[in-house]
Every structure is written in structure tokens, then in C-alpha cells.
């Protein structure tokens, strides 16, 4: 089951706004799954694939029409460290589960985005919020390329190069996907109006200018208040490419106590108004990341 919608996602974006899903991990936890593991949700590809499919289905019912796969933290090293010798099969399964959930839940077209998370996420040490790993662009491209190739075997409609903390990794990811035959979006994680590594957003987004394989650029896994500036900068720096925006809820993670704190700033009650402003500024792919669940996506669906 690898055939996607007849209409390419790029064509759908040219016509209007397309709604992304929300945070996969928080929905899995809501279903009772334990994600206290270095592989995070990717572990369930081997141990509880039905839970992943159920989480995807929850977002389709909420109105999402793009599902991001559970491969964000997946790697050959991570799977191999568990003695799982069929790593390529698990990468393929991430797309197959999303596709199956969509087909079982709605007759509407639903696009599947193969998640290619950053090197720091695979290390499971928070490095995706710092970047600058001490690796060259070539080394990072060599790391990502086998993951991309394995994901492509599942037949995703698009690849989500997401939560990218710096320009070096963005350049490496664009090299890794070059010529793969599938469109991609490039999404940075940002803070204080810059990449997590401190680079100007205009320079970061400009890496995608003139690259026809990149159908959208933008931000994810950031505070909602970062989005307006990022959307405007992305559209301007790339000459008008569609923009993708899917921030976190705005709650803070207490690493010492292992719990979330603070009030959400991208809550269901206020998310529609915020998202309408982003769309007016050029956002075409809109959704949520960590701690934005089906209720939040349903609120966006009703508004957008």
C-alpha cells in the first residue's frame, strides 16, 4: 500500500491551505504508550505498530490531510542496537502505517510525509536544539542518505526534513535527498528569531531558493510566537515558496522532573486565530508539533 493521492501535494498547496497533523508522541502517550526510550516513537514500529496506526487515524479524524511518519528518531544504529536486523522493513513500515490509517479513516486524499529527523534527535541527547555537532556537511549527508533511501522504499509522497537546528545540517539534508525523485519540505527549529545554532533565518531559508525539489520551507518544534517572523522571512528569502508552520504547544519541558509545565500558548482556543494570521503571511502547510493533539488539529480544521 504505497500509492498516494492522485494530486501531488505541491498542486494542493497551490490551491490553498493543507492541514498537517499534530504531535505523534503525545497522542501515543495518550493511548497509554511508554516512550521513555532513546528510540522514542520509532520503537513502536517493531513493538506496537497498531498503536502508531491508531494515532495517525486520530489525526485524520481530526481533519489532518498530511500525516508525518514515526521515523523521526529512527536510525540503522538505533534499530541495530536492539538486535532488529530488519531496519529497512521498519523504515518502510512507518509509511505503510500512515497510509493504512488514512485509507481506513477517510475517502479524502491524505499525503504521507516521511520524517527525516536531525542527527541530534537520533543521538537522543537534545542536540537538535543546539546543532553544530562537530561534523562536516559531507559527514552529515553520509549519515542521512541511508535513512532517506530506506524511507523512500515505503513510497512516501513527500519527505519532511524537520526540526533542523542549523544551516550545515540543512545543506547536508538537501544533498542527501538530491535526485531522490520525491519532493521535500525543509523546516527549521528556531528561537529568538534565528536557527537554534544562532544563524539568521533569511540565510537559512535562502538555501532552498531555486531548488525545485523543495516544495515548502518553514519552522516546527518552536514556540508559536516565533512563527509570524519566520513565515514572512521564509516567503521573502525563497521568492515566494509555500511556507510550512507547525509549532509546539508552548509548554516547557522540565528535563529534571520529566514533566511539562506552564500554560500552552498554542492551545485549541487560540490556535485558529494565530494560524489565520500565518496563512495571510504565506503559510500553506499548517499544523502542530509537540503537545498539540487531535483537539488542536480539529480546531484548526474548523477554522482553515
Question: Could you explain the architecture of this structure?
Answer:
The chain is α/β, with parallel strands linked by helices and 304 residues long. The protein is built from 13 helices and 12 strands. The strands form 3 sheets. It has an 8-stranded parallel β-sheet with strand order 1-12-9-8-5-4-3-2. Strand 6 (190-191) and strand 7 form a beta hairpin. Helix 8 (137-152) crosses helix 9. The chain is globular and about 50 Å long.
Question: What's the arrangement of secondary structure elements?
Answer:
Blueprint lengths: L8 H7 L2 E2 L4 H7 L13 H4 L1 H14 L3 E3 L7 H6 L5 H19 L5 E6 L2 H5 L13 H16 L5 E7 L2 H11 L6 E5 L1 E2 L2 E2 L5 H6 L7 E7 L6 H11 L5 E4 L5 E3 L4 E3 L9 H11 L1 E4 L7 H10 L1
Parallel strand pairs: 1-12, 2-3, 3-4, 4-5, 5-8, 8-9, 9-12
Antiparallel strand pairs: 6-7, 10-11
Care to count the β-strands? 12
Integer-rounded radius of gyration: 17 Å
- Numbering strands along the chain, what is their spatial order in the largest sheet? 1-12-9-8-5-4-3-2
Could you estimate the helical fraction of the residues in percent?
A: 40-55%
Helix and strand content put the structural class at: alpha/beta
For the record, give the distance between the C-alpha atoms at the N and C termini, rounded to a whole number.
Answer: 29 Å
β content, as a range?
Answer: 15-25%
Largest sheet: 8 strands, parallel
Average pLDDT value?
Answer: 93
User: What letter string, H or E per element, gives the SSE order?
Assistant: HEHHHEHHEHHEHEEEHEHEEEHEH
Unreliable spans: none
Shape: globular
Amino acid at each position: 500500500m504505497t500509492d498516494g493521492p492522485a494530486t501531488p501535494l505541491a498542486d494542493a498547496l497551490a490551491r490553498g491551505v493543507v492541514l498537517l497533523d499534530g504531535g505523534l508522541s503525545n497522542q501515543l502517550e495518550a493511548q497509554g504508550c511508554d516512550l521513555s526510550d532513546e528510540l522514542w516513537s520509532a520503537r513502536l514500529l517493531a513493538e506496537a505498530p497498531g498503536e502508531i496506526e491508531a494515532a495517525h487515524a486520530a489525526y485524520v479524524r481530526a481533519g489532518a490531510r498530511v500525516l508525518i511518519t514515526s521515523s523521526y528518531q529512527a536510525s540503522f544504529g538505533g534499530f541495530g542496537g536492539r538486535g532488529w536486523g530488519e531496519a529497512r522493513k521498519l523504515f518502510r513500515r512507518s509509511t505503510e502505517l500512515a497510509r493504512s490509517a488514512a485509507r481506513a479513516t477517510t475517502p479524502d486524499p491524505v499525503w504521507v510525509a516521511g520524517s527525516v529527523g536531525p542527527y541530534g534527535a537520533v543521538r537522543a541527547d537534545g542536540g537538535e536544539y543546539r546543532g553544530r555537532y562537530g561534523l562536516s556537511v559531507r559527514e552529515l549527508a553520509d549519515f542521512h542518505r541511508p535513512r532517506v533511501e530506506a524511507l523512500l522504499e515505503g513510497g512516501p509522497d513527500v519527505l519532511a526534513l524537520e526540526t533542523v537546528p542549523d544551516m550545515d545540517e540543512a545543506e547536508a539534508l538537501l544533498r542527501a535527498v538530491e535526485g531522490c525523485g520525491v519532493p521535500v519540505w525543509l523546516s527549521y527549529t528556531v528561537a529568538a528569531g534565528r536557527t537554534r545554532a544562532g544563524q539568521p533565518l533569511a540565510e537559512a531559508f535562502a538555501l532552498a531558493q531555486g531548488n525545485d525539489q523543495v516544495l515548502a520551507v518553514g519552522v516546527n518544534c518552536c514556540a508559536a510566537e516565533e512563527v509570524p517572523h519566520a513565515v514572512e522571512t521564509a516567503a521573502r528569502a525563497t521568492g515566494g515558496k509555500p511556507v510550512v508552520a507547525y509549532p509546539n504547544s508552548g509548554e516547557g519541558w522540565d528535563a529534571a522532573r520529566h514533566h511539562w509545565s506552564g500554560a500552552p500558548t498554542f492551545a485549541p482556543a487560540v490556535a485558529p486565530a494565530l494560524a489565520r494570521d500565518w496563512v495571510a503571511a504565506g503559510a500553506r502547510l499548517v499544523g502542530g508539533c509537540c503537545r498539540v493533539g487531535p483537539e488542536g488539529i480539529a480546531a484548526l480544521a474548523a477554522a482553515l
